[in-house]
Design goal:
19% helix, eleven-stranded mixed beta sheet, 5 helices, 344 residues, three-stranded antiparallel beta sheet, 16 strands
Length: 344
Amino acid sequence: MPVIEYKCPNCGSGMTFHAETGTLSCPSCNTQKNIDEFPDPLKKQVFTDEDEVREYHCNSCGADIITEEHTSATNCSFCGSAVVLVDRLSGELAPAMVIPFSISKEQAQEAFRKWCRNGLLTPKGFMTADRIKSITGMYVPFWLYGLHNDIEVEAKAIKVRTYRRGDYEITETQHFDIYRKIHLNYNKVPIDASVKMNDELMDKLEPFPYQQLKDFKTPYLAGYVAEKYNFTAEELFPRAKQKIQKFIESYIASSVSGYTSVTYTNKKVDTSITQTDYVLLPVWMVHYDYNRSEYIFAMNGQTGKVVGKPPISKGKMAAWFGGISGASLLTMKIISWAMGGGFL
């Protein structure tokens, strides 16, 4: 099965996508080329999911390329050449768009170290950030949904007003029947489609700058790992609906504001798909070895946002809560003294 490699026109070394310049760059002679100068081989070849051949060979050294079945871009284990597995990016598996990396590996490492140093409750040994086991640039498959929602809401509401008239305090209660018919559209709702990725971790990486979406071209993948989707847009539709549910509830609540209380008697939400786009989004995956345990963190490859669960120092936690308790006790004593109770 053929693979795609990009060779430097000057020295013949393998070229990779350079996050800072947005070009294909040669690490040997520093030649940089605009990716538009390279024809996309995927447009000249057609593959289907029925292709059974799964043997790949590096064009540089001839070695067999061994990957997991859902990997679509990787590096040769023998010579390090960046390769793209064309059959895994064609036909129904072809992404529509991609957000390229804008943060280099060196920048990602420094940003992660800075993030570690800012941990208020993390152990001192973790904050040194000197146990990075690996950091991998990965294009994660996502489905971007356009969702249309037809909403009908029925509710009973009460508005209470209390006022005085002479010696009397009067409470006035008004009852209302409420009906709302709402149409809501949400665009570019992201759901990661890789079985390998932790859904909670990917959700916390948002938002991605969707204004940076570009038509997919294979040079963007050179030098990075890329995965193809494991789940179709139809299979992930329930999760997309669940993801927008809190925004729908918030909008409904805003449409019936101004009442003392609202009781919903009927709430119907009919969600339909208006558009789906298969895209690849940039993520730096960081594996950190600390105290004989491995911690996994993710960084948005465009914004630099870091997410993950670092270890917590029990000593720092105790000191932090002790400081809060001490401050609270001091405040209570000052209040007691001000009220004439004196210190205890």
